[in-house]
């Protein structure tokens, strides 16, 4: 027990001393996850809005696929991205494997379906409320989609935060395509796993404290936005 308390004390000291290795790992984690969330939102928000507004052949099947992809195992995503980026894959010539870019791609693939599915759930009731008005104004579909995205911006911000929370905690996919290389692709989750296996609990606990703090911050932001959000249709 004393060893754990000692390691926790060292971890707190590392956090407050601004340890260079700690800051490097945290900085890379944030850069990878924020980039992945941005890409996933660019893809997921329009897809979710289209699924909420449009009615077309195969829509039901597409909904099933999007919802199923929400539960796709991260290691499977990592494996698929690895195959795409490996030397034998179609994108192997780009040399992206075992780089932060590969990790961003893997996280984007992982959370884009989550963003799309959650944004559809947010926008579909809003579209049902506004549909008659849109029809009376004869608005083109792309204008209606843009209007819904703007009106539901606070709700969609909570969706993006949920995606970030999922991305920052990811370990399976990023370790497959990133390789957990020191000073290159080592992020918080992979570093925690490595340092724990080595018995270096101080750095692992320090990173764990930062990760928990980020999780609490994200959840506080989600609750704050949910509390400040007006009823559906008045975001």
CATH homologous superfamily identity: MetI-like
The number of strands is 0
Number of separate structural domains: 1
CATH architecture: Orthogonal Bundle
Reported by name, the CATH topology is MetI-like fold
The shape is globular
Distance between the termini: 50 Å
Structural class category: mainly alpha
H/E series, N to C? HHHHHHHHHH
The CATH class name reads Mainly Alpha
Round the Cα radius of gyration to an integer and report it. Answer: 21 Å
Helix proportion of residues, in percent? over 70%
Report strand %.
under 5%
Low-confidence stretches: 230-235
Mean pLDDT: 86
User: With helices defined by DSSP (H or I, 4 residues minimum), what is the helix count?
Assistant: 10
- Biggest sheet architecture: none
Supply the key terms:
single chain; 235 residues; mainly alpha; MetI-like fold; 10 helices; 78% helix; 0% strand
């Amino acid at each position: 027990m004393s060893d754990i308390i000692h390691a926790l004390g060292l971890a707190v000291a590392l956090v407050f001393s601004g340890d260079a290795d700690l800051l490097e790992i945290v900085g890379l984690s944030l850069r990878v996850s924020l980039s992945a969330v941005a890409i996933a939102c660019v893809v997921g928000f329009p897809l979710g809005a289209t699924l909420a507004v449009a009615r077309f052949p195969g829509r039901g099947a597409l909904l099933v696929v999007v919802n199923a992809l929400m539960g796709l195992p991260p290691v499977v995503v990592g494996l698929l991205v690895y195959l795409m980026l490996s030397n034998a894959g179609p994108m192997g010539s780009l040399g992206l494997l075992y780089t932060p870019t590969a990790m961003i791609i893997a996280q984007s693939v992982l959370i884009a379906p989550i963003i799309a599915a959650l944004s559809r759930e947010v926008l579909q009731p809003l579209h049902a409320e506004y549909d008659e008005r849109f029809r009376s104004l004869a608005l083109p579909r792309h204008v209606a989609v843009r209007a819904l995205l703007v009106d539901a911006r606070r709700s969609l911000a909570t969706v993006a935060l949920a995606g970030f929370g999922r991305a920052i905690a990811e370990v399976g996919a990023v370790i497959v395509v990133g390789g957990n290389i020191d000073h290159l692709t080592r992020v918080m989750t992979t570093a925690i796993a490595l340092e724990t296996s080595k018995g270096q609990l101080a750095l692992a606990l320090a990173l764990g404290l930062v990760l928990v703090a980020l999780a609490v911050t994200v959840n506080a932001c989600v609750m704050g936005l949910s509390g400040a959000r007006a009823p559906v249709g008045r975001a």
